[in-house]
UniProtKB/TrEMBL annotation:
<protein>
    <recommendedName>
        <fullName>UDP-glucose 4-epimerase</fullName>
        <ecNumber>5.1.3.2</ecNumber>
    </recommendedName>
</protein>
<dbReference type="InterPro" id="IPR001509">
    <property type="entry name" value="Epimerase_deHydtase"/>
</dbReference>
<keyword id="KW-0119">Carbohydrate metabolism</keyword>
<dbReference type="InterPro" id="IPR005886">
    <property type="entry name" value="UDP_G4E"/>
</dbReference>
<comment type="pathway">
    <text>Carbohydrate metabolism; galactose metabolism.</text>
</comment>
<feature type="domain" description="NAD-dependent epimerase/dehydratase">
    <location>
        <begin position="3"/>
        <end position="249"/>
    </location>
</feature>
<dbReference type="Pfam" id="PF01370">
    <property type="entry name" value="Epimerase"/>
</dbReference>
<comment type="similarity">
    <text>Belongs to the NAD(P)-dependent epimerase/dehydratase family.</text>
</comment>
<dbReference type="InterPro" id="IPR036291">
    <property type="entry name" value="NAD(P)-bd_dom_sf"/>
</dbReference>
<keyword id="KW-0413">Isomerase</keyword>
<keyword id="KW-0520">NAD</keyword>
Amino acid sequence: MSWLVTGGAGYIGSHVVVALKEAGMTPVVLDDLSSGHAEFVPADVPFVEGSILDAELVSRTIAEHGVTGVIHIAGFKYAGVSVQRPLHTYEQNVTGMAVLLKAALEQGVDKVVFSSSAAVYGTPPTDIVTEDTPKSPESPYGESKLIGEWLLRDLGVSDGLKHTSLRYFNVVGSGSPALYDTSPHNLFPLVFDALLAGKTPRINGTDYPTPDGTCVRDYIHVADLALAHVEAARALDAGTPLLPAYNLGSGDGVSVRQIMTAVAAATGIPFTPEEAPRRPGDPAQIVATGELAARDLDWKMRHSLDDMVRSAWEAREAAAL
């Protein structure tokens, strides 16, 4: 019995693989290395290089490794870029998921944990997002994630697929100096790279109706996120009923200025952020509640903001050695 982790060589996926191993479960990785790194996969974990769009490869991997469940993380994850590349986004995230699910069901695999996104909510009408908040994605990326949840819902009805989807906003930190965020679009790598290049990070908007005037967002540690994926897989293995989707949120969030202060402390590089006007469309606050996930998946914020920044910086420094 093993769990196939698609995208298991990526930033989030590699942490899920480690968490599965530590839980005594058997991971198998499928990754095309379009954004992942082969060195992120532990040497004792089976690694198949290839795409979820390759139905024959997916079927063969499932059969050869005795896969009984799938944790689906692979996908094109850049919301902003997806607006310029909608066809690519839908091919990777919708067609790819359909191919994966068809192959899994044909091989008798009936359990799927889907790494979804809080992008399905778009700009919500309230500061605190719950699972019942209306879905109104504002990018092909967010739309593709919502379609992925629909696919699971419909296959649950037609084929008895057991599934759940995990929605979250911003993932940061590192669970190991060997595993780090290499995205060219995420906040922490952008801030670190700016500081290392002798540039000053920027805050967009300092006059929001928040405690310090800057935007408040949800940031969660990647190792906490990985544990939630493992708990969901365990529950499906045990036949425990789960909700179709769970938010993995902090409940209160942190501000952009708080992040900048924590970065200066962790890096030892003192700086005063540049202040720029608001960007159009940036809500003052978007934070998700994690109450249902806490009840069913042992979800909790095990790491503070300082932990998140410090671990991310240590991994960034280790990568530069």
